[in-house]
Amino acid sequence: MIKLRIGGVPEHFNLPVHLGIEAGLFKKAGIDLEWIDYPGGTGAMTKALRNDDCDICVLLTEGIITDIINGNPSKIISGYVKSPITWGIHTGNKSHIHSHEQVFTEKVAISRYGSGSHLMPTVDALLKGKKMDQDQYVTVQDIEGALKSLNSGETNIFYWEKYTTKPYVNKGHLRRIGEFLSPWPCFMIAARDEVIAKHPKALDILLKIIHKTCQQFMNDPEAVNMVSERYDLPLQDTKYWFHSTEWATDSWVSDKMLMSVLFTLKEAKIVSDEASVDNLVWKRSASK
Fold first, then answer.
1. Pairing outcome for strands 108-110 and 137-139
2. How far apart are CA 138 and CA 121, in angstroms?
3. What pLDDT, on a 0 to 100 scale, did the predictor assign at position 189?
4. In this structure, are 47 and 111 located in the same domain?
5. Which of these three, 164, 181, 198, is where a domain ends?
């Protein structure tokens, strides 16, 4: 039995992996898979990969690409969610901010540098011909930290997945003033180089199981009800989310997509102009 640790955000996107664990599919294949929640998002997961606190993570595409370029000893081993993520743009309930156009001059709450909550406002600004300065960002760790920061007036803006924050909006803790659609597939699966070198066959088996559970989940007539109940999301919101989301059913990662993400990261000055896509993805032929 090979022990592997996999991490991700405690959100509805990762339910197919949980279903595979609960059904014992990984154990039947000789993999003891431990799930670790990372409510701090992609920035927390890239740190975990660097520190050997986790072996595999399901994390935002732009975040893992940036961190591998910046020295994270990991590789993308598969796509996970092929569709873009809908980011809600939020402010505090007493904030003076009322429109998307006001966002780019304000202090922005982020979970960590390199996380989606940091990179998405940067990219959003770039695509609208604006520019964000680094001193506009304030690290708040997670959603709870963002709520405190926004409602104390320390920050005024917070980008986070729309449906995850919907309950806070409904209760009046946050106001959503806009949305931003990520311009590429939102989630990738990445593993540490050491794990790839040591357990390439186990990773291939693990990915085949994840892809199978994703396929089954997308075709499950009870999937919407299951997500709504497990994650305490309104049924109608869950329907909209489910029918706008597509999971990967194979390991293929598009070179064109990687180049497009890298171009945007360079334009936003998040990575150096010399960065390339050459060493971002696990090349299986070199591992066998």
1. parallel
2. 13
3. 98
4. no
5. 181
Same domain, 95 and 66: no
Greater confidence (141 vs 77) lies with 77
Domain span holding position 100: 89-181
Q: For residue 158, what are its two tokens?
A: 């917070």
For the stretch 250-283, pLDDT in tens is: 999 999 999 999 998 888 788 999 999 999 999 9
Domains held by the chain: number: 2
Q: Is the per-residue pLDDT at 287 higher than 80?
A: no
Beta-bridge mates of residue 51: none
For the record, the structure tokens of 31 come out as 């993999």
Q: Domain end: 148, 181, 214, which one?
A: 181
Pairing of strands 56-60, 2-8: parallel
| Whether 80 and 97 share a structural domain | no
Closest Cα to residue 231, out of 41, 14, 7? Answer: 14
Q: Determine what percent of the chain is predicted with pLDDT higher than 70.
A: 99
- Give the amino acid at 95: S
Neighbours of 70 (CB within 10 A): 14
Q: What is the dihedral of CA 112, 162, 248, 191, to 10 degrees?
A: 10
Q: Which domain CATH number covers 143?
A: 3.40.190.10
The CA radius of gyration of the chain, in Å to the nearest whole number, is: 19
Do 72 and 131 share a structural domain?
no
Task: Tell me what the pLDDT averaged over the chain comes to.
Answer: 93
DSSP letter (8 states) at residue 84: P
Pick from 242, 239, 254, 125: which is nearest to 188 by CA? 254
- The sheet carrying 31-37 orders its strands as 31-37, 2-8, 56-60, 187-192, 74-81
